[in-house]
Amino acid sequence: MLQGMRNPSRGYRGACLLLISLVAVFSPGTPRGVAAATSPPEPAIVRLAVVNATEFSGLFDDLGRDFQEQTGYQLEVFSGSAGTVGDTVGDDDIFVEGPDGIADVLISHYGRKPVQQFVQDGFGLWPVPVFANTMALIGPSSDPAHIRGTRDVVEAFRRIAETESPYVSNAIREAKYLEAIIWEAAGRPPKTSWYIDTGARAGEAVDAAAALGAYTLWGAFPFLQHQQEFQLDLDLMVAEDPLLQRLMVAIAVNPEKFPVGNFAGGQALQRYLLTPAAQARIRAFRIPGIDFQLWWPMGRSNNSELFPR
């Protein structure tokens, strides 16, 4: 089912249970997560640090080729403690050390505390919304609540409660928050024996759901990566409700803090991502073997210098 997707060298389970520290050596005055650059990048190279889901899905394999054709810049996508192109990480640690220094542009989920701190401290410029990925309601292939194909996650959750099909609550914060919204919207169905909350987090919650023939919430891409490794009897059930979308932003590194970065190339990348053609390409992107649309164009900007003319 997942042919054509990246196969990371490390399983996703550990990355989901721990926030990975990617910082090697810091110079005085350098923010946590950003290492001092040792040499300037090649002028024709734009270095992009991304979160795990973005790299794993192959989205930038597609966008990177088009970006180079349109601008002449070569895109290097990386993150990870090793600082090698192709490594990946979660977005609480997206401010990473690159092969020769810092990234030119960072792409992370909007609203995370490190993102806010990075910008407020002046190390990154104003975040530019570019696209969204998605959480997903995941369930057993037998689908006892008959929610497969439902586009309304609230209606799907209501059916799970009405049929008292087992549901495992995922204890990660974003899943808990989303679950609370869905539960309220579904009319606060009583959490009786069908509702299982043991504090299991991320991949542990998915493993528990597989063992119990239950439903659960998790990020679509973490699930697909986990599924690629463990082959559980679970499927994506609902992933196309806008309520499930998670906004991602591109942040250019401030050249006044890091003058060795390829600022012009980073600006070119941000402008490219906002173009109608790139936004349409994001909308059309599909993972081989997956029927769902999992990337959503979110190009929004009131900055006349960034927005395409």
Describe the fold and architecture:
With 309 residues, this protein is an alpha/beta fold. It folds into two domains: 12-132 and 245-297, 3-Layer(aba) Sandwich (D-Maltodextrin-Binding Protein, domain 2); 135-243, D-Maltodextrin-Binding Protein, domain 2. 32% of the residues lie in helices and 17% in strands. The chain is built from ten helices and ten strands. It has helices spanning 12-17, 52-57, 59-71, 113-120, 153-162, 173-185, 202-212, 220-230, 263-274, 276-284; strands at residues 45-50, 74-78, 105-109, 128-140, 167-168, 195-196, 216-219, 234-238, 245-252, 296-297. The strands form two sheets. Strands 1, 2, 3, 4, 7, 8, 9 and 10 form an eight-stranded mixed sheet that branches. The protein has a two-stranded parallel ribbon with strand order 5-6. Helix 6 links the parallel strand 5 and strand 6 (195-196). The longest helix has 13 residues, at 59-71. The chain is elongated, with a radius of gyration of 20 Å. The chain starts with 11 loop residues before the first helix and ends in a 12-residue tail after the last strand.
